[in-house]
Write a structure and sequence with these properties.
Blueprint lengths: L1 E6 L5 E2 L2 E2 L1 H16 L4 E6 L10 H8 L7 H19 L2 E7 L7 H10 L6 E4 L2 E4 L5 E7 L12 H11 L4 E7 L6 H21 L4
Parallel strand pairs: 1-4, 1-5, 5-8, 8-9
Antiparallel strand pairs: 2-3, 6-7
Helix pairs in contact: 1-6, 2-3
């Protein structure tokens, strides 16, 4: 098994303090590794190594044939290629996805913009678009300061279902840690609920 963990919080995690989405993602990856001792874990920590935005220079590089790219263009495309290769190789994607201002973080958006590439991770056919990143399990760790699950304020889950499904990743499992900014007791309850959800989904995935 190849596990890819992608941390997308702007906050680092230091000695258990800081990004709670990263904390929970670490726990999921550790549990998966315990279930599958031979698994390989690849960590993409976007808080420590932010990916550049999709700007006009990047678009020009992507639309320029590989053999005609300048060294700078080739270097820029190679950054996206590395993210795509990690995702293509993964059997399980562990995605830390905190909510910032009712949406995903800019770090996660830049990662999505990098891995969504026509004719590589999706293609258009006579019957419509087809995702090429199939057969992957995705576990998304959702952390929120308030309570947004199943309300119109939650734009994160519909967006991720749409964009990841467009790329072929339809086996999605969402773990909710909510109320994290509503006081110590609410934070503890939110984390306890998330950990119970994690335990259940990992147990359900165990062979009978």
């Amino acid at each position: 098994m190849n596990i890819l963990q992608v941390n997308t919080s702007a906050r680092p995690l230091v000695n258990g303090q800081g990004s709670l989405s990263t904390l929970l993602a670490n726990e999921v990856s550790a549990s998966l590794h315990a279930q599958h001792p031979g698994a390989r874990l690849v960590l993409r920590n976007l808080s420590a190594q932010p990916h550049p935005t999709l700007d006009e220079a990047t678009l020009q590089a992507l639309f320029t044939p590989a053999q005609a790219r300048t060294p700078a263009q080739a270097e820029r495309v190679a950054l996206d290629d590395a993210l795509i290769a990690e995702l293509q190789a993964a059997d399980v994607l562990v995605l830390a996805a905190p909510m910032y201002n009712f949406g995903i973080t800019s770090l996660l958006k830049h990662w999505i913009d990098a891995v969504a590439r026509a004719k590589v991770t999706f293609e258009y056919t006579a019957t419509g678009p087809r995702g090429l990143l199939t057969g992957k399990r995705v576990i998304v760790l959702l952390t929120r300061g308030g309570i947004h699950r199943d309300t119109p304020a939650d734009t994160v889950v519909p967006y991720l279902r749409n964009v990841l499904g467009f790329l072929g990743m339809t086996d999605l499992q969402f773990v909710y840690a909510e109320g994290l900014a509503m006081g110590p007791e609410a934070e503890a309850a939110g984390l306890a609920s998330a950990r119970a959800q994690i335990a259940q989904l990992l147990q359900d995935a165990q062979p009978a």
